[in-house]
Amino acid sequence: MIILVPAERRPSLEGRIRCLELVPDPSTGDEGLHQHGYSYCIDLSGGILADYEPEELEQVTTRIGEPYAVYVSCESMDAARAFLREVLPGVDGLVDTNHHEILQASEFLTLVDRYPGWDWRRRPSTGLSGSRLASASCGSPAGPDHDGGEVQCRPVGDSEFLRRCAGRQVRWSAQACD
User: Fold this and answer.
1) Domain ranges of the chain
2) Which of 75, 105, 114, 168 is most buried, by CB atoms within 10 Å?
3) What is the DSSP letter of 139?
4) pTM metric for this prediction
């Protein structure tokens, strides 16, 4: 994910992130963070902007002016949520999900709080309203096509998930999303 702020706010965002006690990662040249049981790779150089298509960069510039960007890589959606909940409050900027969506930071945090199981890699924010979502978990894996872990924000009645968990106890917890 990428956090974008106006270039003049770079010191504020960078300082907020550096307060988390980053350590240099000699293998990547970036900085690492180990916090709350999660590991992160953080690029504070702003160089990620070179990867933007001209249209994307124009969209960002139109919204916040000349941007500064921080690229954050982490191991899971839970890690991403933990990091963003710590860093984003009060940030006047944008979050690029790196999955075809750029949202206001405050709007992004609101969605993360409203839909705790939201996986923005698989479902855009526009697909959240009015959906019926569920969390499910099933017993231990019984084959190569089942990971046995928690599945979040699956449509209720997801036949592929039920097939993969056939013969094991499945616990569903459904929630209506407005």
Assistant:
1) 2-123, 130-176
2) 105
3) S
4) 0.68
Q: How far is CA 96 from CA 107, 130, 136, 144, 145, in A?
A: 12, 23, 28, 33, 31
d(CA 176, CA 178): 7
One pLDDT digit (tens) per residue for the chain, 178 residues: 999 999 999 999 999 999 988 888 787 778 889 888 899 999 999 999 999 999 999 999 999 999 999 999 988 889 998 999 999 999 999 999 887 788 899 999 988 888 888 777 766 666 566 443 333 334 433 333 334 443 333 333 333 333 333 333 333 333 333 3
Distance CA 73, CA 10 (A): 19
- C-beta separation of 2 from 96 below 8 A: yes
